[in-house]
Amino acid sequence: MTSTLRRSLLVVAAAGLLSTTVTGAAVAGPPTRSPLQQSLNTLVTEEHYPAALAWTSKNGRTTSLVAGSSRRDRQVPVPHDGQVRAGSNTKTFTAVVVLQLVAEGKVRLDASVERYLPGLVRGEGIEAEAITVRHLLQHTSGLPNYTEHIGLENFENIQHRFFQPHDLLAAALAHPATFEPGSDWEYSNTNYLLAGLLIERVTGRPVQEEIRERVIRKAGLRHTYWPGPGEQTIRGPHPHGYALARLDDDRVVDATVMDPSWGGAAGQLISTPGDLARFSRALLDGRLLPPALLAEMRKTVDAPVLPGWRYGLGVFSVPLSCGGVYWGHGGDIDGYETRGGATDDGRSVGLAVTALPGTFGGDPEESALAVMSAVDTAFCT
Questions:
Q1: What local confidence, expressed as pLDDT, does residue 358 receive?
Q2: CA 169, CA 200: separation in Å to the nearest integer?
Q3: Reduced to 3 states, what is the DSSP secondary structure of residue 340?
Q4: Ranges of the chain whose pLDDT falls below 70
Q5: Catalytic: 88?
Q6: What residues contact 358, with CB distance under 8 A and at least 6 apart?
Q7: pLDDT at position 91, please?
Q8: In whole angstroms, what is the distance from residue 16 CA to residue 38 CA?
Q9: Residue 21 has what DSSP assignment?
Q10: Which of 64, 102, 237, 290 is the most buried (most CB within 10 A)?
Q11: Cut 0.90: pTM above it
């Protein structure tokens, strides 16, 4: 979630990383004749992710695969479908709640942010009256990205720091708009910070409660939750996640225990690959939104992260090598990267690795593309 694939590539590539090997990264799982198992093994042995986890559902059959080790310093089995920090997958949950409020007549997609959050969004070149709810959900608002301005490049300094939403917003609004609303696309976590505040203003309840009641429970997700204030650990079985101590330092630290409050409605959830895949399936199957709002969610604009990628309202459309697309999001947050989604014909995939691309050396772009290749393999084989 630092924050899209493009963001993670740029940030990690800027670090000038040195090559590091992964200790005890033995491969675990079923026989290597499975193409997906081979892809997970490759993520560990060649791309140096400490662990990789995948969950798939096809033709009524589910599969859970793992590779690597839960700990970098010694061999510890990776829990099948273990919990990970979901990062920006949280955005899709937030978008679903906003669209449910639209369906209930409490929010209008093309009404201005000023209508729901009066006097809150102010800054150089920023006109709240011109920014709509749709612009927020589609990353076409032109609002500066708060994660660029809160010190995330020095993970050790912020690892245990608690952030208030309004402090995050202030960090963003101290910088000018990047373009006029609706004229371009650029990923900004500030959009979903505001979407979360909008949910709270309209419902009168905390955004985490609305996501839990309206999405997590409705989709039947048993291993997904929003960490409470000050909660820095991961509750269920999980592999450890690792991060660079600083982007100008090749030192790697254990990032498993951290305060995720800077993620908020843009990236605070904890989940599993299986739950993230089930969520995407429930969404595409129409269990969370009425048809008209699901159709609005799937109206996309070009999102130049990778060729062919497009962005709707809180969801990416990603082309597959075997034809068609899958709908999902993905998330990057210190210690974990997650990818996956679902297709209209019933396939669902969730995949996670326990570091951001390039954390343990090598080319970060190639490492990120290897994760996407593994997702493609999961869908197409």
A1: 93
A2: 15
A3: strand
A4: 1-32
A5: yes
A6: 12, 13, 15, 17, 364, 367, 368
A7: 98
A8: 29
A9: P
A10: 102
A11: yes
* Distance of alpha carbon 62 from alpha carbon 272, whole angstroms: 14
Q: 3-class SS at 62?
A: strand
Task: Provide the token pair at 126.
Answer: 């920023």
DSSP track, 81-95: T--EE-GGGHHHHHH
Q: How far apart are CA 373 and CA 370, in angstroms?
A: 5
Separation in Å, CA 42 to CA 36, 335, 367: 10, 19, 10
Residue 316, classed as helix, strand or coil, is strand
CB atoms within 10 A of CB 228: 7
Evaluate whether 368 touches 349 at the Cβ level (below 8 Å).
no
Helical ranges in 126-188 per DSSP H: 133-138, 155-158, 165-173
**Distance (Å, whole) CA 280 – CA 66:** 21
3-state secondary structure of 342: strand
Please write the tens of the pLDDT for every residue from 36-74.
999 999 999 999 999 999 999 999 999 999 999 999 999
| Predicted local confidence at residue 15, as pLDDT | 28
CA gap 207, 213 in Å, rounded: 10
Give the tokens for residue 306: 């990778």
Indicate which residue of 88, 141, 188, 261 is catalytic.
88
- The residue behind tokens 């963003």 is 172
DSSP 3-state of 54:
strand
Terminus-to-terminus CA distance in the chain, angstroms? 28
